[in-house]
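Support request, please re-run this one:
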Amino acid sequence: MEKLSIIGCGTMGHSIALSAAWAGLNVKVVGVNEEDLKRADKGLHNKIEVMVENELFSEREGQEIRSRITLLTSLQEAVEDATFIIEAIPEVLEMKHRFYQELEQLIGEDVVIASNTSGFTPTSLAEKALHPERFIVTHYWNPAHLIPLVEVVKGEKTNQETIDRAMLFMKRMNKQPIFLNKEIPGFIGNRLQYALFREAQALLDQGVATKEDIDAAVTYSIGRRLPITGPLMTADMGGLDVFSAISNYLFEGLSTAKKSGSVLTGLVEEGKLGDKSGEGFYQWDEAASGKINREREKTLIHFLKLDRERKL
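Re-run finished. Output below.
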């Protein structure tokens, strides 16, 4: 059994830790300082409370899950007996390189280093490493304790043992790991997500429909069937001849924009950054944000329950 340590206790770090603890694993999580740990502790408390309310487990089980997570500020203490380390620090390549150089001085060469990066390739992450063969990407999706997918990505020098250990460990954490045969920017999930986002921006920029109707076109159609059938299985069910014919004439008119659309660019330049600033495509206040987040959590928990029922 791998001994897990997570570096970074922010949004993703403590959420990954919760996922591991829910699977019965003990996990050490490192934060920058005591304030960092307090935020992580509050995040864990709130998430466990929601999961108890939605009957994913009992209050007693929630307490047991929380007891498996140890929050620390000492990197050396956190990794002294680790065999598998997940790095979830900010997405700054130079910062990650500096951290890996420090980390490799504290651990044995057989310890796996997995990054939760959502964009950097494992080859670029490991380019200054002493042992690049033990570097791999395990990209969790936010919120990591509720979304099953983990994208496992090898680098040019990643060895097979590291791949096998990562895939096995993700399954042990009750995740749904997918393996990329080659590293590619954005991996799979973000490439699909941003292809949809690019077309949504193009439709909005062209005035084809309101933002509300563009969003509704997804949530009330493909969004309803995507939890069961992905794009390729959907094509099989609809008939590949039909999907091929539509692709042949529709692809010519789809957006090929290389940068953000004009509406999005304008909003960012005005400091309208969405939920975090109170305004973006939509207006946000504490009540609106809380309502949408609760609805999203409830829906994700619903599908998580279905996933677990299928495995029984």
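Residues 4-180 form a domain with the Rossmann fold fold (CATH 3.40.50.720). The longest helix spans residues 286-311.
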